[in-house]
Amino acid sequence: MNFEDVLVLSSKYNVARMLERDDFSKRYKAGQPISMIEFLYPLVQGYDSVAMECDVELGGTDQKFNLLVGRDLQREYGKEAQCVLTLPLLVGLDGSKKMSKSLGNYVGITETPIDMFGKLMSISDDLMWNYFELLTDLPLPEIENRKNGMAKKELHPKEIKTELAKLIMDQFSSPSENEEAIQEWKKIHNPKSRAVPDDVKEIKLGEEFFAETPEPLLVWVLSKLSFIPSVSEGRRLIKAGGLYLSEDKITDEKFPIQKGKEYLVRQGKKGNF
């Protein structure tokens, strides 16, 4: 698109329609600024529907306004309006915000089975029903049966959550590999056995790690060892409750590593570095 195209596109919509968006409306009434580029964004996204001559467009519920702008623009350009289908947003591991890598409350589809299982087992009992509905093909009546069984104490939440985790994991890894990971996880978290799992990497830190300070930060050490992509990612993990020292959640972003001590560090309550 050249600038003339942008001007033509802008003429197809008006400010009154833009203010129908809930976020824009609230900010306008509160006297908070709304930049022009924020108005242009739904227009440019909506123009994709025009250029691609979409019949159907899918998106999260947070994209409903933008998708409907696409419908309106298609009519303005003399095309048949697309059908719009929105889906609920997946709530992250924290149980409050949408799942997002930047928030550190996510399950990565390329993570190891044991890491994936550990993260899924960490969700709340209430949140697991949402995951059953959005991430599995289990029929709704069967989900309801499990919910009733848990309410009557006929089924244990951990048993149901394990089933959920397996249903999700089997979409990305082989069932045998997943079962092996689950058994390893259970071995690690058996209160009667605190043995260090066989696949845990044992690393002795060299003098270079203590050259600048006698107690370097854990997130810095993990970053230097390439266990996490960056120090900032480590801080995000800690904020999201995703880093553990043995069985204890790390809450201090400046947690120090002391020379000569041993640490068993986990990413997610059930996984290991």
TrEMBL record:
Domain of life: Bacteria
Catalytic activity: tRNA(Tyr) + L-tyrosine + ATP = L-tyrosyl-tRNA(Tyr) + AMP + diphosphate + H(+)
Gene Ontology terms describing biological process: tyrosyl-tRNA aminoacylation
Molecular function GO terms recorded: ATP binding; RNA binding; tyrosine-tRNA ligase activity
Uppermost EC category: ligase
Matching InterPro entries: aa-tRNA-synth_Ic, Rossmann-like_a/b/a_fold, S4_RNA-bd_sf, Tyr-tRNA-ligase, Tyr-tRNA-ligase_bac-type
Documented EC number(s): 6.1.1.1
Keywords per UniProt: Aminoacyl-tRNA synthetase, ATP-binding, Ligase, Nucleotide-binding, Protein biosynthesis
GO cellular component: cytosol
SUPFAM superfamilies given in the database record: Alpha-L RNA-binding motif, Nucleotidylyl transferase
Assigned protein family: Belongs to the class-I aminoacyl-tRNA synthetase family.
Protein name: Tyrosine--tRNA ligase
Source organism per UniProt: Leptospira interrogans serovar Australis str. 200703203
